[in-house]
């Protein structure tokens, strides 16, 4: 493979998800990683979610997110299979997921492709850096992360186009009383929307998706076969844009919506309740308490409000 | 009797060679994991090549003790600044111990991937699977060809 070019001889596919639920889109993404035929084919998956917060694979949701406020506002909390920090999604944010085989995996190439495409179209002044961020000035417009398995990989990134940044900042305030934690932590950064920086061109998620997907297909030096009608799954769909309206193979996939995945995968932490009272939580379950009055919660799912009430009434 | 003619310098060199020679019980996979077998117990980790490719490691997900896995199953996940990758078990087994040090010091895998940065110890359930793995020489040759 040429340095930061596409894999030689590889064929591109584009998949647009019409799903708007973060749990379904993350399940779709993970299903593609496990089932895509990476031998010769690459894929660009595009999805948008209704308001939600997505934490990295080994993060602590209570430390990253105001869980009570998110639940009260109907903002879904999800955990992805890739690493990195916590991000907020809404319909003004577009997610791109670049699937390819392990040797061709190159997030830097993907971000260069995105910034070149968007700069040529709307003159946005986007720059990329070694941490696989894309920024305008000092403010980020993307967050990146990757997942690599034996058979293939994806690099995905969020792209803030017309996102509600005030909603973002209010929900991303975690619990300050978590005193020890081995989970990976987010690195806060100032953020901005693409649409705020375009002078002559109207920038919406739809426009961004259209330009990026057509540029993605154009990068590959392949001849796209004419599709035969009626279309069957065995046909080579390289160069075609496919649309997903429902999850394939749902029954076989781990459910990204379960408590066990979102909260039950949290690395061990200690939460302080003042006056020397502490609880230790592992995999989302209270495993130790420092105060006898809390012994009933040992073995139960961590719930800060329940514990505070028990302390108050004792 | 010939031993009396061996100089102290030669003995020191011989001892040094022993400490740096790979033990004969080290086996490697094509996905860059290793297992160091002694009796029916194997210590498992990722190779130096794998840790270099991953970059700085920030989290190692350790398996549960007593969990049983088949060869090729994901026994651990490792997050680095670049990606989350899998650690596949080189041979089938039951987890008997995990390297708890990695919880606080995940970059021990970067510093000493094939020694102190071990991930777990397993009791092998099918030692014939070792026949499918590579020794050090074969693994080094494999790396050259990649």
Using brief descriptors, characterize the structure shown.
heterodimer, A: 314 residues, alpha+beta, six-stranded mixed beta sheet, four-stranded antiparallel beta sheet, 8 helices, elongated, B: 146 residues, six-stranded antiparallel beta sheet, three-stranded antiparallel beta sheet, 9 strands, 26% helix, 31% strand, globular, disordered N terminus
How would you characterize this protein structure?
The complex is a heterodimer of chains A (314) and B (146). In chain A, helix 4 packs across helix 6 (205-219). In chain A, strand 8 (134-136) and strand 9 form a beta hairpin. The N and C termini of chain A lie far apart (67 Å). Chain A contains eight helices and 16 strands. Chain A is of the alpha+beta class and 314 residues long. Chain B has five helices and nine strands, in the order αβββαβββββααβα. In chain B, the strands form two sheets. A six-stranded antiparallel beta sheet of chain B has the order 1-2-3-9-8-5. The radius of gyration of chain B is 17 Å and the shape is globular. The A-B interface holds A 56-58, 81-83, 105, 107, 131, 145-150, 153, 155, 182-184, 267-268 and B 31, 58-59, 61, 77, 79-86, 88, 103-104.
Helix coverage percent of chain A: 10-25%
Percentage of residues assigned to helices of chain B: 25-40%
Q: List the strand order in the largest sheet of chain A.
A: 10-11-6-2-1-13
> Which protein chains make the most extensive interface, counting residues with beta carbons within 8 Å of the other chain's beta carbons?
A-B, 22 and 16 residues
Strand content of chain B: 25-35%
How would a textbook summarize the main sheet of chain B? Answer: 6 strands, antiparallel
Q: Spans of chain B with pLDDT under 50 lasting ≥5 residues? A: 1-22
The number of helices of chain B is 5
The count of β-strands of chain B is 9
| Overall strand count of chain A | 16
Low-confidence stretches of chain A: none
Radius of gyration of chain B: 17 Å
Quaternary structure state of the chains depicted: heterodimer
Topology order of chain A in helix (H) and strand (E) letters: EHEEHHEEEHEEEEEHEHEHEEEH
**Structural class of the helix and strand makeup of chain A?**
alpha+beta
